[in-house]
Amino acid sequence: MSKSPNIAAGTRRTNGAPAMLAGATRPFENIRRLKFNLDWITRPVFGIALAAAALGAIAWGSYPFAVFVAVGAIAGAREWHRMVGHPVFAREVFVSAVTIVAVVITFLALHSSLVPWLLLLLGAIVALASASLRGARAAWQAGGVLYLGVPALALVALRSVPPHGAYVIVGLMLAIWATDTGALIAGNLIGGAKLAPALSPNKTWSGTLGGILTASIVEAAYIAILHGNPALAALYGAFVATIGHAGDLFESWVKRRFQFKDSGGLIPGHGGVLDRIDSTLAASSAVALAVFASGFDPIFGAHL
Length: 304
Prior knowledge:
The chain has helices at 29-33, 39-60, 62-85, 91-110, 115-133, 138-159, 165-190, 205-225, 230-257, 273-294; strands at 13-14, 17-18, 194-196, 200-204.
């Protein structure tokens, strides 16, 4: 019986063999293509510097950490409003900055009060009204207040969780950093099929899974050192990594929607602030929801 000439959708024949899906590379083919570039130096150097600054702020206390978070959120807000509105400086940047500072200060003063959430909502409404008056994509401008404000509040609230909020934040950050590092290494070395080429042409399934696996291992090791449950920590690491990947894809979609390659150029080797914290924005919000809505323990019974 002769072979059918039909070929599965998404493949083509090259020298009689089906080729990879469009946009994909053969597994491990990227190893042969690796060439040195300046990002090999700038990316790890600035990544380590930012991580050291974050850890220093976490260890210093709730107030220094709140300042660190607010500064990062305001820098991210400027990039967001620039992306969705295009002006160099929009009024909504000021609205976001004031809202974030007010939310952080109010939380530190009142802790479990609903007032910070009401201020966030008020800030979004003011941004909506401001952008509407000048016809500047009002929903996107208002969304920026919440996109940066909710994670900022979540991080400050998690740092204040008694009695071991600092360990909660360190565990969260380790999972996010491990995800980014594992995804970068696995994606570059292994390559293969693209994860979502329409959103982010450089992301691969190998990088995504490599990031999840790395986060699981690192989080399990961290909690084991703290004498907690490493098996549960590994699942938590995978959860944080998955949410982080989703946050990364969301920001990629926004950039594609408004035709931006990077959200900015403030951090050499990384792009803009949003390019660096997109995973953190999503993961911190999800973890805070789990902690404050259901009493979830992110250190899994660790004895400190």
